[in-house]
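Q: What structure does this chain adopt?
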Amino acid sequence: MKAFRIASVTRMASQLVHLPEVERLSPACIRILGGNPSKFTLQGTNTYLVGTGPNRLLIDTGEGKPSWIDALKRTLDEEKATIESALITHWHPDHTGGIGQLLEHSPKTAVYKYKPSDGQLAISEGQKFEVEGATLTAFHTPGHTDDHIVFVIQEEDALFTGDNVLGQGTAVFEDLGTYLKSIAKMEKLVSGRGYPGHGPVLPQASRTIAEYISHRRQREQQVLEVLQTLTSAGDYDTWTPMGLVKIIYRDVPESLHVPAANGVVQILRKLRDEGKVKELEDEDHWRFIKRSSVC
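A:
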């Protein structure tokens, strides 16, 4: 039987590059960390103050840590600026948790979000937000979440990638098929840098996105080949996601097999929708569909 192996999981926490709490990344972009580092948020959630004049845009608000709002206030004082609008990339708490703090400090700030709630304003596909020194265009890119939005900054030919593409590691997603369509869309938006929701700046966003797409295709092909090989060689014609994980991820600690199985299920769902595998027993068992049996 052909062996399928993957590299051991990266020890991300020990390999994270240091990011300052506040850092100017370009004439029109300052990153302010959310003060919430963890294995899920890396160095912390990135929030971005965008523009060059007295009125600025803010992208995301962290999760509501006191250090974040303090750093934002200091930065605004130094820049002699206020926040005209806050643009939220998606609903996750580590991106929306600081909205209340922001509005306490700046009650007149308009908060925009795709699928808005609680007095927020809607973001639509192609909508533009302009302040001195920066013109942002919004693009709906579901996958990580169904409300996920990214923004192109016209003056830099750069992309605020939200959580669809990270500065280190790979992103998680709700629906793999939708996610792949979205990052393929993102790949064509700019030729310059990427400002991610977590991690350092991406030197060339499109190159990193292409690597993401290649990585996902490799994982998909790996699952398909394992399922096909095992079905053809063994006495069993159906396999559980965890059964596949124990073969594909044999070099990964068992403590990580459950999240790996969730990723395998996402791949299997995509393959099912493409008519390549069949689901049995409410996603508990899956079967490879031979080419000759597909109508």
